[in-house]
Amino acid sequence: MPVQLADVITALETAYPPGLAEPWDAVGLVCGDPAEPVAKVLVCVDPVESTVDEALELGADLIVAHHPLLLKGVHGVPADSTKGKLVHRMIRAGVALFCAHTNADSANPGVSDALAEAIGLRVLRPLAPTAPGTDTGLGRIGELPEPEPFARFVERVSAALPQTRPGVYGAGDPDREIRTVAVSGGSGDSYLATAKAAGVDAYVTADLRHHPAGEHLEAGPSVPALVGVTHWASEWPWCGQASAVMRAALAGTVDIHVSTRCTDPWTIRA
Length: 270
What we know:
Layout lengths: L4 H11 L12 E4 L8 E5 L4 H10 L3 E4 L16 H12 L2 E4 L2 H5 L4 H9 L2 E8 L7 E13 H11 L8 E3 L5 E11 L4 H7 L3 E5 L3 H8 L7 E5 L1 H5 L1 H14 L4 E4 L12
Parallel strand pairs: 2-3, 2-11, 3-4, 8-9, 9-10
Antiparallel strand pairs: 1-4, 5-6, 6-8, 7-10
Helix pairs in contact: 1-10, 5-10
């Protein structure tokens, strides 16, 4: 029997329980009929025009995205609005959309596990556990197989992630030995104090802002060195993880593709 959308949803919600989502988040099925068959899936970070184009070109029945399309409350989805246009295109083409956001961030394994694995870390525990002693939560703390200078570690992160125009940047002593590392896929400067309290050597995250990063570094040479990456690049490794979840649960009955299109908004570096 063909796989139904409901079967795919079950696999994804088993891996990324909706109950782990933050109260403000919007996760789950955005459009699509759970009773409809699914033969081809596109996995991406952002449900935007480029990835909807890619899904239609592939003939996909479903887009599985990390970021929600409709995060804030809306009163309508007219086709002449940016997001309404995408909803209309997907419905007309018979393409469903499912989003796993902060539930995928907190799940074990989740977004930050995928980031840690890409970098080559052995994960030890969550950076900010859902509850004391749990293995779910935001961010991860891990360790390298062997210590290495910070400059080399920044190069490691750059080589591990897809290239973007802004690239990867580091703040810290280039010669400092790095062994323990905190990572947080997506915007993570709200966890600077948590990474410092954890006593790690470096912290890798996205969207680091000038003032929080500067105040963190002013605390002295013992605070974690910082590695900044773009939001999209930090979460792209999750696409492979989500693909593996579906392949394992659906036993090769669905053709699954990871989006190859960079949806990072920054396109020029002068």
